[in-house]
Input
Amino acid sequence: MRYLLFLTLFLKLYGGFITPLPSHVQVNIQKAILGKALFFEPMLSKDNKISCASCHDVYHGGDDGKKVSIGVNGQKGNINTPSVLNAVFNFKEYWNGRAKTLKDQVYESIKNPFEMGNNFKNIVNKINHTSYKKWFQKVYGEDGVNSKNIIDAIVEYEKTLITPSRFDRFLKGDEKALTKTEKEGFLLFKTKGCIACHNGKNIGGNMYSKYGAILRTQDNNLGRYNVTKDERDKYVFKVPSLRNVALTAPYFHNGSISSLKQAVYFMSLTQTGRVMKEDEVDKIVSFLHSLTGNLIRGVK
Amino acid sequence: MLFIKKKSFDTITKLLLVFILAIPSGFMIFYTINKNIRLFNRQSHAIYELELLYKDFKYFTTQKGLLHNYDIINKKMENFQNSLQNLKLLFKKNFENKDYVARLDKISNDFLLQEQFIEHIKSNNSIIVNTFDYLYDLNKNIKKYSKIDDNDLNLLRNTLYLSMQTYTNDAQILDKVYSSLDKIKLLSKKDDDKYIRFFYQHEVLLLKTIASMHKESKKVDNLNIYRQLKSMDSDLLKDFSDYLDISQNLMFGLVLFLVGLLITILYLHRGLIKRKNDLNAYKYAIENSDNSIVITDLNKNIIYVNEAFEKETGYSKEEVIGKNPRVLKANLLNPSHYVSLNEALRTFQKWEGEFINKRKDGSIYYEKASISPMFVNGKITGYIAIKLNITKYIEQQRKIKFLAFHDRLTSLPNRHFFEEYFNRKILSQKQEVALLYIDLDHFKNINDTLGHQAGDELLKIFIKRLKNRLSKDDLIARLGGDEFVVIVHTSNREEVVKVSMRILDALKKPIVIQSHKLNITTSIGVAFFPSDGKNLEELLKYADMAMYKAKSQGRNGVQLFSQNISNEISERMMIEQELRKALEHEEFYMVYQPKYNIKTKDVIGFEALIRWENEKLGFVPPDKFISIAEETGLIDDIGYFVFAQACKDFQTLKAINTNIKHMAINVSTVQLQQKSFIQDINKIIKKFNLKSSDIEIEMTETYIMKNIEKNIQTLESLKKYGYKIAIDDFGTGYSSFAYLKQLPISTLKIDKSFVDDICVDNKDKQIIETIVALAEHLGFDTVAEGIETREQKLLLEKMGCKIGQGYFFSKPLKIEDLVEYIWHEEKEEVCV
Output
């Protein structure tokens, strides 16, 4: 009986492992507005065709709905685009966590030849020949246009890209915010091991995990190993946030699965090492839909 | 004065500046310390925070199998890193010299491993949680899915339970778990049960994960991040307390310094105030000093003068400031006088001396000055001259000097001056000069009769006349009383005599004083230098001798010195010297010459004659020493002796021969002038029981005539007392018959010179006849002196001269001889 008691206690401790998103954020509005403009500005890319928004549709899940992203000159990337929405709450950026902050991510994505393939000297030069120059001077004063300010403005905008949902209302105590099925889905989410990796504010995005932690799966992306060269980090990826997951198909770093139901099923098998019944999966999917939110008001 | 103040003011200002500067630096130090304390607090706090966070990580790594919200641990890791970065920045602000930053860098690096470890823990923990979840779920529901029997189920449950204990890394438990797992593996294969297989897989993964976590956690523990933090904490505390100690000492030192400085400033300030008061006092003293005070700069330009200076010189401050003090120079001093002054000033020595300066109005004054360099703090800044007007003193000195060398009455050079002059100008330069020794004749009489004032007046007039008759080159000096000397620059005797005659001429005209017409004469003695005297003493002596000679030759004359005079005077001096002792030594004795009635040859009286037998000089005749006795005043005592002795002897003689009528005693006019003379002789005759008529007082005609008016009075008194009076040496003087008539005399004694030649010279015979006739007419007796022969006696008898005296009768005899002589005369009638 001892271990039973232990397990009961163990389950009791589940509460509070997912926390609601804040309903508003503190940002410098001037910078954020400038950042938004830059976010949508193709001039940042080498061929003036790609903007941040090209891959991160902030109005639809924060990604591009493609299996892998398309960079400058129509190049295909090697990884599925992660959502920009709520990215500010991720503990690291990119699938392999190589960017510690959003700023690092912005910087790298602009310079990555498979993404925007540009350099900041070029960007500053370009922007200085536009009305941006005055805008920057208005916002950043004498500093005007420079790489630091460009990145700063974009990040300031990205801080506003958070999407509170019904589930957050539920977490804050609104029992009616979720349907019965969704509530059952949440319970299953908690008891079937999902929550072990998908927890925190972003319901994920705060740890690394091996792709196929229990059951090995075939994949050619070594994941975090590419960053740390640590044998244990092979096939290890950042656990993604499940917010707006209903909108961000196809799933996983390789975009290998396009149905959410299939993705849940796949996850339960490979990551939790169990076979879920179909109704259980449906309930979880239904719960996952409640995570779809809207951008907070202010900067849209 | 200013520069003295300025100098000391500077020191205080400097100290004050230091003080004022020291206060902000004190505040700076205080601020820095305060800042460092705050910094230390932040550092210490940050380290503490890191320690706490690290403890959280440690705790997190040991909390295996628990579901976590990884946001929390992520946040903590972020905080840890931020804290590390902040701390690094903080350590760049202080203790830069320590290795804190490097240590933090090391911690930072170590933390990367820690972070990795935590990431793995997170991943593994999720697996473990999931596995536990699964196992729990399976355990609960396996019967629903599987045909497992109770034994097997127990195996699974035991395995699960044991698995949970594998955290302790107990080898025994692990062995049990692994043996159980082997059974389960067999079981899963036997039944081909999907759930048991999953269970097995989960268990294997669980054990593998736990094992790898054990391994990893050891590695991380070896990093000792916590110990690094702890040691850093304690090192920091130590460093900081060291710093605090130093700071405390610094502050203490600073406070001490400031207090010391303040005390010094106060002390100096007090000193300054005191000095200022002192300076004010000195300034007051200088300004109000009676001495002129002048301060100059190094270039000897005046920068200060006091009021006394202004009063003294007539220059105002404004007129002299900036000028050289030589504006006062009267150019009366020898330039060499200033050489020593300049030399002294050049070598910064004190100089003392006198100046003759000129006032603004041109008047001259004398100053005694002391000039000293002024040193301020060892550096010479100028000169100060303190001067005293000594004009009055100098003038007084001159007056005193003048008086010392001049006669007050006549303003003539005095003896002192004369000696100086002679020694300096004449003796040393061997000039040939004549020294005239001038003495007014009978000046004493004028003083006695008309008073000293008249005498002084007379001298003044005399000098005035004298000066008029002498050349300017001739020096006149007053030696004292009525004695003057004149130095005439010549060796020519004739010329000297001429000059002397001019002097005598000067007095020819009577001098009128107090309506008295005075006929004054003078006697002049002359001696020549160097022919007569080799030095002043000799010269004066000889001139004096010559003068004396002139006097003795009847006055109103000039006498040039000669060796004869010298001898004469020497003899005289000798006599005088011996005469003074003669009475005491009883060298005098009396002889008596009998007077006879020429007709009857009866002795009627004696003339008392003094004799002097001196040891050195032998017998000295009266005519040689009486005059000296008179001049020296010894005559009084001698006269007294004579009178007394004569009276005594007369008493004896009278006792023998009662016919003897009188004793004639010679009296000098000097004696007569003695007021007590009559009383003295009265006493004597009383003593010897004589009558005044027994005494006949003899005096020479010349003496009586000399001061006839006064003598008549004396003679009258003598007569009144009953004394007889005889005129000695009658006929030799210039007797006026008018006077003769008035004189209260009883006898005329005809001088021996007439008697000597009575037999050969008819003229003398006639004179005697006349005198005898005159005496008979006037009722006087006549006494012929010096009868030596019978012819003379007969002739005089025939002429009617009644009394005679002389060797023909008897030479003067001593009293013993005389007594015998009278005895004889009494016994046997002596007939010659």
About this structure: Chain B has 28 helices and 22 strands. Chain B touches chain A at residues 66-71, 74, 116, 119-120, 122-123, 125-127, 129-134, 136-137, 157, 160-161, 164, 194, 198, 201-202, 205, 212 (CB under 8 Å). The first strand of chain B starts at residue 292 and ends at 296. The mean pLDDT of chain B is 84.
